[in-house]
Amino acid sequence: MRNTRTALVYSLPLLSIVLSLIVYSNSFSCGWYFDDFRCIVNYDYTNASFTSLYAFYPLRFVGFCTFWANHTLCGYNIWGWHLVNLLIHCVNIVLVFFLSLQLFKASSKRISNPCINDYELITALVISALFAVHPIQTQAVTYIVQRMELLGTSFVLLTVLGLINAGVSRTFSNRITWGIIAVVSFVLGFFTKEFIVVAPLIAGLYYVLFVIRSRKHQIAAVGITALCGVIAAAGILYWCHALRFNPLTLSFGPFARLWDDALPPDQYYPTQVRVLLMYIRLCLVPFGQHVEYYIAPSSSFLDIRVLFAAAVQLLLIAAGILTLKRRPVILFGIAWFYLFLAPSSTLLPNGMYEHRLYGPMLGLLFALCIPLSLEIVEQPARIRNTLGRIALSLTAFLIVCFCFLTCCRNQVWHSGMSLWGDAVGKSPQSWRANVNFGKQLMDNERYEEALPYLEKSFVLNSNIVEVAYNLGVCKFNTGDQQGAINLFKYALSLNPRLPEMKNMLNDTIVLIYTVNADDSLKRKQYPRALQLYTRVLEYEQSNTNALQGQALCIQAIGDTNTINNGSVNQPEQLDQ
Fold first, then answer.
1. 205 vs 23, 61, 128, 142, 324, CA distance in Å?
2. How far apart, in whole angstroms, are the C-alpha atoms of residue 19 and residue 2?
3. pTM to 2 decimals?
4. Which of 125, 225, 284, 452 lies at a 20 to 30 A Cα distance from 430?
5. What CA–CA distance (Å, rounded) separates 341 from 280?
6. How far is CA 432 from CA 294, 296, 457, in A?
7. How far is it, in rounded angstroms, from Cα 433 to Cα 453?
8. Closest CA to 358 of 171, 162, 89
């Protein structure tokens, strides 16, 4: 009997894995996006080494090693990269299953009902299945560079499981084994994703809520785990130069150091309260998903929208506290959600993205599924059977809906046109959505269609280099060369170190002078044409058209001395 149960325990996660393989089967043809180019496509993995990978990005070293291995095995055949992401997701599904079993056992110690073991397995299967096919996970699985998120979550889950089992195992050898797993996972996680710092906090919270009964020991456990978390967080921030020490002052400046386009702190943190509520909504009711969310910034915590979002979340936390004695797993799940989000949403702010919910969403699944299952178990047999069938039917329907939505989201990720077309339709006030959709249209040589989106993006946020640059390129290709020159000069004023901007500016100026010179030559206005060809050669000394035009003008004028003496007037200046 025991062997049968063991086999069942190890085979049940396969059902969730099969579901995941089915719903992500249409993601293998999705393309490269965003940081994929900087971190994968444009990086020289052929000549890479451990030293060069570590130097490129120390805090993502483990993830970059997997990119290197991926490139060695299949080059840039994108299906191979998607396959590895999906396999890591499947590993996480198994880890989630076993962590769910652990939490259910800890939450049901006082329940003596003989059917508790069946509900334990069913609940763990439901949680792993919902985690596997939830549409909010699409960005983390399908967007290749977010393998960092997948790996980081793997190491958090392994660290938490290792720390929990190291403390509750009955044999010394098991404790040592699980302890080694926890330490190794934490170290690997430290070189993968900054949210590994929450692992000891989550494990400590588990001991406080489920294991330790003495109030004195609970306080000590909270203090120790909090100290470990603070030290680890400070280490990561110091490493990436967001936290700086000197003998007299402490400088904490992740906004200025890491993301130039981030909101200032007095706007970011009030807005983040609303973002957290949006995250909760997306986990519970995943509709209206897209790659670029726009939330109008709030400049004060007294903003009515901020107060409403804070009130809803405080009620959620209060519910966890009020049910602490009877259902501590609710508070555990809520704390998991906020702790997991804290490093990326609070310490290292750079926007609102779905991939950040990959690990945090688990907390809400724990807080909902396990208490609901326990409530059903504690009912009389007749009511329990009825409620159990209803719950399973609703869960199955929900999983089917999630599978459909995930397939649809993968379809959206198939091309840049579909991805940004979806985003700009759902967030028309997002400058990033507008500029990226306009760029996709330009890549398809649909410049007239792209122009309104790029102009709107410039109106929404004119202080971003890429906005001015892309609008300049569009104007250049729609015939407005002078407008393009003004935009390129403006973009250079924002960032003078961009060679592509200087090249584009020079090319535009050369084009304008060449067109005007050729026109003057046709009109037999030889002195003016000569002046313009001379200006072209100041930008491009080997411009064949300008050299030929200059020779024709000199021959037509027949008086090179006048030209050499500098008596020829300078050409008209371009508008500044």
1. 34, 29, 22, 32, 12
2. 27
3. 0.82
4. 284
5. 11
6. 9, 13, 7
7. 9
8. 89
Scan for tokens 């609901």, then name that residue: 372
What is the residue type of 372?
A: L
* DSSP per position, 229-286: HHHHHHHHHHHTTSEEE-SS-EEE-HHHHH-TTSPPHHHHHHHHHHHHHHHHHHHHS-
First to last CA, the chain: 85
Burial 556-575 (b: 16+ CB within 10 A, else e): eeeeeeebeeeeeeebeeee
The SS3 assignment for 304 reads helix
Within 10 Å of residue 404's Cβ, how many Cβ atoms?
A: 13
Domains and CATH numbers, the chain: 2-412 (no CATH), 457-564 (1.25.40.10)
Return the structure tokens found at 232.
Answer: 């680890």
pLDDT, tens only, 515-566: 778 878 877 788 878 888 887 887 777 788 788 888 888 888 775 444 444 4
CB 333 within 8 A of CB 339: no
What is the rounded distance in angstroms from the CA atom of residue 388 to the CA atom of residue 116?
Answer: 12
Q: What percent of the chain has pLDDT over 70?
A: 85
Strand partners, 250: 245
Could you tell me how many residues make up the chain? 576
- Distances from the Cα of 258 to the Cα of 39, 242, 245, 262, 431, angstroms: 17, 7, 17, 9, 20
> Phi and psi dihedrals of 243, rounded to 5?
-125, 125
The gap from C-alpha 213 to its chain's centroid, in whole angstroms, comes to 39
Q: What is the 3-state secondary structure (H, E, C) of 125-169?
A: HHHHHHHHHCHHHHHHHHCHHHHHHHHHHHHHHHHHHHHHHHHHC
Contact assessment for residue 102 and residue 161, using Cβ atoms and an 8 Å cutoff: yes
Identify whether the C-beta of residue 23 lies closer than 8 Å to the C-beta of residue 403: yes
Residue 6 binned pLDDT confidence (cut-offs 50, 70, 90): low
Contact 433, 352 (CB under 8 A): no
